[in-house]
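Same chain as my last thread, 195 residues:
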Amino acid sequence: MTESDTNLRARLVDVGVALVAAEGAEALTLREIARRTGVSHGAPRRHFPTHLELLSAIARRGFTDLAGEVETTLAETAEATARERIAALARTYLRFALEHPGMYELMFRHDVLESGHLGLRGTSLPLFGLFADLVGQVSPGADARRTAGALWAALHGLAQLWRWGSLQLATGEQEFAPLLDTVLNAHLGPRDGER
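reply #2:
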């Protein structure tokens, strides 16, 4: 692959990332990405033979960004308990979801992405594995992957319903922190000293 091919491939992904941020996942068509990149509508197919491969490359960028935020959170909470680290990671996850709604939506659409292609699973599954390991430390007798999955589903629902304004309307809450505490207590039990 020549340098110009490599540059075009990166530009296509960059344009896709900007497009999903501005207009959401539904705007990510090959034709629109090509138009905004300034190439013919067939040019992306030289680098991404299918639309799904291009979407996967764009989603991979989102997982890379989320992984960077997770690494920062883990470094900042290195001395914290496993439960405190889970709470910090949950806040990081929710902030990412609320600040990057189009990318967030795309990243978790494994039904439409080529998840096994371009290492997408290799980028997303370690994040879940880390979460499950921490859950196992908090609840050693529980099935950590199942509990982490249920907690993740609750976080995903919290992010979506918060973004749509549904939770604010239903609960009267103006910040998601109290709801997050309730979700964590429901899946991990109350913090030490709480009931």
